[in-house]
Amino acid sequence: MSLVITGLTVGYGARRIFSGLDLPEIRAGRVTALVGPNGAGKSTVLRAIAGGIAASGQVFWKENDLLRMDVRARSRIIGFMPQGLRDTPGLSVLDSVIASLRVFAPGLPMSACRGQALTALSRVGMIDLALRPLAQVSGGQRQLAGLAQSLVRDPAVLLLDEPTSALDLRHQTDVMGLLKGLAAEGRTIVTVLHDLSLAANWADEIIVLADGGVYAAGPARTVLTPDLFRSVYRVQACTGQAADGGTYVVVTGPLEPPP
Ligand SMILES: Nc1ncnc2c1ncn2[C@@H]1O[C@H](COP(=O)(O)OP(=O)(O)OP(=O)(O)O)[C@@H](O)[C@H]1O
Where is the ABC transporter domain (predicted)? Predict the structure, then answer.
């Protein structure tokens, strides 16, 4: 099973961001990291797949073209965590997760909704804060609540836009471990990441978007090269191996301007 994206054309109004983008096959059971510089179009790709923005081309999942499904049908397959959480004034953390379940499953009994929402909150380690108003949790806790909202329908495909950007080291590790576990259960996980060390240690596959296309794709050891750091990120950087086998990325400075 895989997500096969070809000829994706998407933009905002008259502004094209991608014209006929082909991505490498995104396989179920793996964590795929979507990386690239600011403005490369990572969020736009996720929005296009999730149905938050009009797009043409093909996004095949099990012989169905997601782009030809309405958002409700897509939501049965896809969980999407955008960057930043919509404001839901007055709602508790738990209510906000229930709301994101009920919007696509209005007939589901409240007791079942509560049960599923509590399960999602416990998966992200937020059960203790379930009854706290969402407006009164920290930035990182809000991000975990957003993750629970995207998990609550138990989607086969999970699209996450920088799910760890507000998290401390332990919570980053817990979330990446959770994504690994969800992938091991057969789900397809696509996550935008800026932290290339996290991508190197947790993603099975990295896709680098730059200049309107795919610059490189594959496992970290083949993708995260000094050439990539120079050409795509405009920095001097390299990777190294920690004693425990982990990979780290060190940036030593901006790319020297040409003489
Ligand atoms: N709502 C919008 N209206 C118009 N242009 C937009 C809109 N959202 C994004 N863009 C533009 O689309 C391009 C791709 O943006 P996108 O947010 O997909 O990039 P990104 O790779 O996710 O960036 P970042 O790493 O900064 O989050 C950028 O040039 C951006 O300015």
Answer: 3-236
pTM of the predicted protein model:
0.95
The per-residue pLDDT for range 91-121, each reduced to its tens digit, is 999 999 999 998 887 788 999 999 999 999 9
Which residues sit opposite 192 in a β-bridge?
34, 161
Distance CA 173, CA 10 (A): 33
> C-alpha 106: how far from its chain's center?
26
Q: Residue 242 is which amino acid?
A: A
Whether 36 contacts 232, CB under 8 Å: yes
Query: Rounded to the nearest 5°, which phi and psi values hold at 251?
Result: -105, 125
Residue whose CA is at the smallest distance from ligand 1 atom 3: 12
Beta bridge partners of 92: 133
Is the Cβ atom of 146 under 6 angstroms away from ligand 1? no
Q: Is 41 in the pocket of ligand 1 (CB under 6 A)?
A: yes
Domain annotation for the chain: domains and CATH numbers: 2-254 (3.40.50.300)
